[in-house]
Amino acid sequence: MRLKAGVKQYWRRMGLRVRLLLPIALILVSAGSVRSYYLVAEEREAAISNYQDELSELHLYLTPLLVEQSIIGDYAAIKQTLSLQTKARVNLDSIRWHYLNNTLILNDPTPTPLEAPAWFVRFVGIAPVTSASPITYGSENYGELQLDTTPVPAINKIWTRFTSQVKTIFVVIICIFILISLVLHGNLATLRQLSSAADRFKRGDRKVRVQVRGAAEINAAVTAFNDMAEEVEQLLQSKQESHHALQEQLHFMQQLLAVLPIPIFVKDVDERYLSFNAAWEKLFGISGKSLLNKRLVDLYPDSPDIAKAHREKDLALMEQPGKQIYEISIPVSGGEWRDTIYYKATFTNIDGSLAGIIGAIVDITERKQAESLLFAEKERAEITFSSIGDAVISTDTKGRVEAINPAAEKLTGWKAAEAKGQLLEAVFPIVNETTKTPVASLMQQIIVEGKAVSARNIMLQARNGEEIAIENSAAPIRDRKGNILGCVLVFHDVSEKRQLLEQITWQAGHDTLTSLPNRVLLADRLIRALSNAHRQNRLLAVCLLDLDEFKPVNDRHGHEQGDRLLIEVAERLEKAVRGGDTVARLGGDEFVLLISDLNDMDAMEAALERVLTAVSEPYLINEEPVKISASIGVAVYPLDDADSDTLLRHADQAMYQAKQAGRNRFQLFDADQDMQQQTRNQELDKIRQALHRNELRLFYQPKVNMRTGRVVGMEALLRWHHPDRGLIGPMAFLPLAEQSDMIVQIGEWVLHEAMRQMQEWLRQGEVWPVSVNIAARHFQRPDFVSLIEKALSLYPEVPPQYLELEILESAALGDIQHVHSVITECQKMGVNFALDDFGTGYSSLTYLKRLPANIIKIDQSFVRDMLDDQEDLALVEAVISLSKVFNRGVIAEGVETVEHGVLLLRLGCDEAQGYGIARPMPPAEVLNWVEQYKPDPSWAQWADISWELSDFPLIVAQYEHIKWIDQVVMSVEDLPLLLMEGEIADQHVCRFGQWYDRQGKERYGHLTEFSELEALHTRVHAIGAEIVRLNHESESEKPRDLAKELLLLKDQMVKKLETIQLAVTRTL
């Protein structure tokens, strides 16, 4: 019973929509459930039946196939057939065929996955079916075939039908719900509006109405509500209208008094306060309620006089009703006194009887203060106007003078009283400074444009006729609204300023010593001269003049006399040129001449000759005649079509060429030479960048003692590791660097790098003296000794005696005394010196004696050619002899062959360097080379044997023989043959044959070994001629075989020659 009562109560609380939709939903769900159950039952029966039919059909299909293929023994075909069936039939899970003790089992390779949930599988209840039957044909048995089915495809199919059915039922329910909701929506909405309207009407919303729509029954209820609401609203409206009118009038008055910024008060006829507004309360700082029905004495308890004055005014007004206005100072909030104006008036009752006084208070304290300030400001303005330093004139809009200050009186000559009312043009007449024409008044421009204007370069014509240079400005005078009331003119005397400006302008463009144009003015005149020359098609000579030997004169006679000399030179130059030409001074003893309007070069040369003559005339200094000259560089426009700066630079370059050519002359600018100079500058810049980028490298060439076979030193040789061109030798860039101070920077780098490398070798346990080449420009620097001292101090581990400085013989011949001093100072520190390329200069024995160099280096050009040139051989012998006479060490450079070394040893030179010993190498390879180095055995063989000069041709002959054979052998490799035809065919024509037939027979003909040479020499030429012939016939293999034989003959001849040499030494 309780459940039934609860359901009824819940049913009553339900809305109409729920009451309709809930039963419909239950009915549809029940019907759908029954339909789904029967659907699943039908599908299950159909699936089971289908299994039976498919198994029967498959047995019938497979039996003949299995029999046929079993008979022929094609089991592969059987397996393929069964496999195809497991793949083709989705319900078939596996096939098992047992035959002759063999079982073939084939399962579905891709079983169908189960899609239905487990509860549904249990609900459907389809089990797998297995069918087994024998395979017979006639009386023969061919095994047993077992077929197993899977229920998964059938269950998946039933599940799909089931879910589709459920979805359909769900969609039907949704559609029915939507249709019913749409039908109920309109009627229920009207009922909700009616309920809401009733609630709003109860809360006071009398104008609320409900729109009539929906079913007829609902519309009737809505109409009844609307009629009732209309009647109630009309009854209430008529009652409220009369009350509202009174309230509006009272409210308006209260608001009006409250927002007025003026304090307002009301009194009755008994002088008692009835009301006040907010502004009154703020002014006095008192709440109006505290003074209701009170009198003046209560408002001003501390100021009875103020209360009495007000009361007298009130009584007077009530005796004569109307209006009353008066000023009075009263105390207000905070005890402050304010200046005020009281506005009072009487008011009456409806019957016309006097009711009281209404009053308003206006605070005029700020206005009073402003009036005081304005008066004081006016007084200050008048004082300022009178005392201001600039002249000031004010006018009205018609241009008549209203005021003029004392400064303006002084400049114009007009008194203030006389000027007032006069037109501005009469009091302030102005003219143009240059043209002296009258300048229009600025007044009209100010009136039209309404902005300040100014004017310069004008003259004021004073009343006494005097003209005064002035600067003036004028501006409109405006009122608060921006209307122009007149103008004010301010001006002042700029005469002194104008004169000072002119003087400064002149000084900015002129040289203070000579009064000639300076660089600034010269630049302007040069641009104009170039323009005129271009327009008139004339020549313009831009000449840069530098005085020769001016510095010695200036140093000898003093700067004051030097300045006088420069002034006289300037005067002579101005007289030597024409009036239209320009003479300018750049500074020091440099001048520039602009010789314009030239017809041809002859006219220019004549002008320059006049200048040179004028400058070279004697000057009188301290009663002593002094002669100087000038060197002039000339750039001619438009032959040298360049801008002004370039022309001056070209003239400067030509001037230096004139000095180098002998001075006291002029030199035209050479564009080709300038291009070469620019190229040199660019190359120098590349070298400078290489130095900064650490692209320079030091290679080291060993020096050896050929007699002992010991390494005695290294020479540091510079290389440039170019990023694009690879390794560059010194001759590609050092000659150019030696022409500038760049060689000093490079020299210092080389010196420090060599010292650093020696220090590194020391730390590795090896060290040799390292020679560093020093350029002449570097060596001749005044601070050279200090640079060496600094370098030694930076590398204290390196003994100074291991540093060897090589200087060219030509560098040592410049200033022999200075060179001697530098070498001596450096030797005191332990540094050694070598005189490089000795014999290439023109030094005498006296110079050699005065140069304390430790070592003399024989130039490689003599060493390299001494085997070919008797003069070079004699020179090498002479240098070696000189070194012994002066007790100097000697070393030969350029040793390229063993024969060079043998000859040097026999001449008495033990130390050498060259490609025949080792090429320059990076520092990383030096130690390895030293470890592996072995001197040529020939040097050790002849180390202790002395020779006479008459035996040296034997070594030369041996060298020539070896060269001859090498030439022939190299021709086999298609290299050019550098021998004459006669030198090949005839053994008496070659150089060795000539020696053999003449000097050899004379000196060594008595030796048996010498006579044996002839047969060998004849055989050598025969084989050599055959090799040359075969080469001409383009043979390839046979010449190579003959070349091997020729090399063997060479060795035999060399041994014979060595035997002759030993025989000679035994006779000495």
From TrEMBL:
Residue span, PAC domain: 324-376, 454-506
Presence of keyword Transmembrane helix: yes
Biological process annotations from GO: signal transduction
InterPro entries, A to Z: Biofilm_reg_signaling (IPR052155), Chemoreceptor_zinc-bind_dom (IPR025991), EAL_dom (IPR001633), EAL_sf (IPR035919), GGDEF_dom (IPR000160), HAMP_dom (IPR003660), LapD_MoxY_N (IPR032244), LapD_MoxY_peri_C (IPR042461)
Domain EAL: 680-934
Annotated ranges, domain GGDEF: 538-671
A GO term for molecular function: catalytic activity
PROSITE patterns registered for this protein in UniProt: EAL (PS50883), GGDEF (PS50887), HAMP (PS50885), PAC (PS50113), PAS (PS50112)
Keywords per UniProt: Membrane, Transmembrane, Transmembrane helix
Top-level lineage group: Bacteria
Limits of the PAS domain: 249-297, 377-450
Domain HAMP: 191-237
Transmembrane segments: 169-188
Any one of the GO CC terms: membrane
A Pfam family matched in the record: PAS_4
SUPFAM superfamilies registered for this protein in UniProt: EAL domain-like (SSF141868), Nucleotide cyclase (SSF55073), PYP-like sensor domain (PAS domain) (SSF55785)
Listed name of the protein: PAS domain S-box-containing protein/diguanylate cyclase (GGDEF)-like protein
Biological source species: Sulfurirhabdus autotrophica
Phylogenetic classification of the source organism: Bacteria, Pseudomonadati, Pseudomonadota, Betaproteobacteria, Nitrosomonadales
